[in-house]
Amino acid sequence: MQKSWYRQLPLLPLGPEAIQELLEDLLGVDSSVRGLSDLIHERTAGNPFFAEEIVQTLIEAGNLEGSKGSYRPVTPIERLEIPISVESVLAARIDRLPEREKQVLQAASVIGKEFPEPILSAVLDWPSIELSAAIQALKNAEFLFEQSLYPVTEFTFKHPLTQEVALNSQLRDRRRKTHAAVAQALEDASQDKLDERAALLAHHWDEAGDEGRASTWHHRAAEVIGFHHIEEAMRHFRRAQHLVDRLRPTNETKREAALLQDIAAGASDAMKGLRNAEVTIAG
Length: 283
Prior knowledge:
Layout: H1 16-27, H2 34-44, H3 48-60, E1 64-67, E2 70-73, H4 86-96, H5 99-111, E3 114-116, H6 117-124, H7 128-140, E4 144-148, E5 154-157, H8 160-168, H9 172-189, H10 198-208, H11 211-225, H12 230-246, H13 251-282
Antiparallel strand pairs: 1-2, 3-5, 4-5
């Protein structure tokens, strides 16, 4: 934020008229949903994503019937339970998913906000027809969107918060196993791009709890980044050092620890030199 090119753009909540227009597009203009629009606007404070998710939740829970732009309440509006936060809305929607779709969404959330279908397929190892049907159901429910078709099909979560809630809905051990499967799938699929994906592989092996492989990839990521972004390289070096120190002491791990210490010291000196140069130039 201290850089000269930094610019902050505030994103203000939508006003009553804009939210009303959004809800009319989703619900319709029938008098039976008018009070519901007011209730949703009051609860969401102008957050359009929250408003969309509340509408989707009411549809999936059977509180609304009809189609987009022409819904009617099934449950009296005064008896509807409107969630108090967008996280609770997403958690409830994910919890209601059939087990097949839930597993796909959770596995995808471990890969990242954007993910290629071949990696998801390798992680789950399901029949292609089964995986395609689950992805289509998640697209229909607006959890996922298709982002690109070439050179491979890639998908993205509708919102980063959707990915975050899906990720946190998993037990730690299961999430770790999925991270390990993702890391292995990325390694197998990226033999010609391992340097480019070193930081990503470090992240997944780290989250998988594999300290040896994580330290190796943090080290490689630091070397790839190098002087292009010294602070980021230092972060990877320090993480690699921390992980190596936790490994069972062997001649190999001791040599690696010594090497990392020497490299980190050199990078730290270089970073200090650059900062001093920036101060001199600024002066």
